[in-house]
Amino acid sequence: MISLVGRRPAAPGSLALDCKAIIAAIQAKAGSMAPAILNGKDFIDHWGKHKHLFILPQHDGKCAYCEVSVIAGMPGDVEHFRPKSFCQPLSKAKTNDDYAGKPPYRKTGIKSSGYWWLAYEWSNYLLACNRCNSLWKKNQFPIAGTAALKSSQLTAEHHLLINPYDTDPEPHFAFDENTGQIRGRTARGTATIEVCGLDRKSLEVQRAIKGEKLISRHGEYLDALVRNNVLAQNNALRALLDECQDRQAFAGLARYFVQHKVGITYSQLTAMRAAGQM
């Protein structure tokens, strides 16, 4: 996961026009229920047709959660960050081996009210791959404290799931470049990994492949330092920087690796290249 702060696409004017009557009907139904447990049939999908608007902001269609290419590799969804129909806690996944489309086999908890009033709110959308959204996250939305029941309470709600359009994820995750494993450095990082299945086996394998490249480039850099070969050092640093670029697969892993192995942040590397220092 990498930051998308400041990259949210502009909302299409047609969305609000299409949804006025639907929102009124949903509000009437939800108001008669406590808790307000709705289902997908209560909502007409006016968000899916806008999926293309998220492709460029999410660096050529990377999943906002796991960084897999949604457009090239698997079905993608305009995902509701806060679930619209209801919220439901799930037990810890019994397996992270998702090959052959295996689900995480989790038990469901008691349903609570969803964020139905945000069903057609543009700021509640992001582009996610099918596995993160439909197999793992589903209707989970863990809260530390009390859940918001209306829009005016959202700023006071302490949700644990990270939305990269609102929060820079970098401080919340750590990676092992050899195994491709991810771990949370904060409670929010840990919750996001568990909810979205960011520790599933298919991602670990792909991140480990990325790790091999990073280790190789780092080895070249260390060898150039020993030989005091400035040209080779700069070539290796440029190669590492390329692996960190927004459009690259698993850029979050690459940036963590560079910062903790080379001692230079991604932003510092970018500044060095811009200044012609490498």
Task: Quote the distance from N terminus to C terminus.
Answer: 27 Å
Give the strand content: 5-15%
pLDDT < 50 stretches: none
Largest sheet: 2 strands, antiparallel
Helix amount: 25-40%
Outline the structure in words.
Helix content is 37%, strand content 7%. The protein has two domains: 13-166, no CATH class; 202-274, no CATH class. The relative contact order is 0.13. The chain contains eight helices and six strands; from the N terminus they run ααββββαββααααα. A two-stranded antiparallel ribbon has the order 1-4. Strands 2-3 form a two-stranded antiparallel sheet. The protein starts with 12 loop residues before the first helix and ends with a helix.
